[in-house]
Design a protein that fits this description.
four-stranded mixed beta sheet; cytoplasm; single chain; UDP-n-acetylglucosamine1-carboxyvinyl-transferase, Chain; 31% helix; 23 strands; globular; alpha+beta; cell wall biogenesis/degradation
Amino acid sequence: MERFIIEGGTPLHGEVVIAGAKNAALGLIPATILSEGLCKIENIPNIKDVNRFINILKKLGIKTTQLNDNTVIFDAENIKQYEMLDDETRKMRASYYLLGALLGRFKKVVIPFPGGCDIGVRPIDQHIKGFEALGAKVELKHGIINISAERLIGASIYLDVVSVGATINIMLAAVKAEGVTVIENAAKEPHVVDVANFLNLMGANIKGAGTDVIKVTGVDKLYGCEYMVIPDQIEAGTYMVAAVATKGNVLIKNIIPKHLESISAKLLEMGAQIIEYDDSIRVIGEEHLKSINVKTLPYPGFPTDLQQPMAVLMCLTEGTGTITESIFENRFKYVDELRRMGADIIVDGRVAVINGGKSLSGATLKATDLRAGAAMVIAGLVAEGTTEVTDLKHIERGYEHLESKLRSLGAKISKSST
């Protein structure tokens, strides 16, 4: 089994370049299904989830040309298949974007119910609500989703909860529907905007992405284009937290500072230094950090994908702080791992009370999911002694070259296969 071996206590110093956004790429890749021309996408992160999704598209009949580790050309002109039932599809949460893309292209789709990290109930009822509003018939039997429509007709759709996945999926289904589709209470995350921009470049007519009302006017045909994925907000935030936790000084490059405002605000509140530039940000840790309260919220609020790394940092602060998880109800499973290092954390439902000022000691830890895995690595960087992090498959789903990037910043981290 592969594991990271980390010697803690070394401040991070230097520069790190952020990869393309995982969550954006996972929406852009299936969107190529709707195009009848070549789509060249640059800055695609070289991570397991993305590579798995590209393989799924190949099985659907889409031709792909890998120009380099981060640039792929997609050719969906001759795709004929709207059914994908293999195990790869079952394992990926983002495979649900095949629903909107294949429905938009063929007016029918058959795929398994999606998987993903075990972080709580993640229903797709809002996706289904949107498809049905557009005129589709949805059947769920034996773990298989079967959706079909004679015609897709624009409609007004109000999402009962803010859902990134449902917002993107409805956009994918609606871009070639007849008439106008209005999505209210839409998600405003940067990757929603990125997918909308990509579709518009292909010839779609989407307005309002980044606000809570998105209007999609259907078009007859989408064409090829060239596009570059936005930088990864969560990867950038992870390195920001790591820099502060280790009392380091790190310049984080290839980022959009506006996407990081909620993270920067909390780190400043703690007492860290943040210096913003046009497409980079310098983060400097301080010896004494204040405890804070954090509540995860849809964008532009504090992202749920960074609450686990933030929990590690809050263990090092002076005083008591809280993290309230408002997005997922089962996202504190990693706390048991931190307790084994000496962390003082009490979980009550969706609230974690973190008593800071406790030094962490090295231990063997398990990455329980993708973002928890990143938190375990940060815990190892600040702990006394040696930490081993197992189940790297979760981490590698979402972080490109994490080990080598951290080593370039001075971290004492290596990978062992024993």
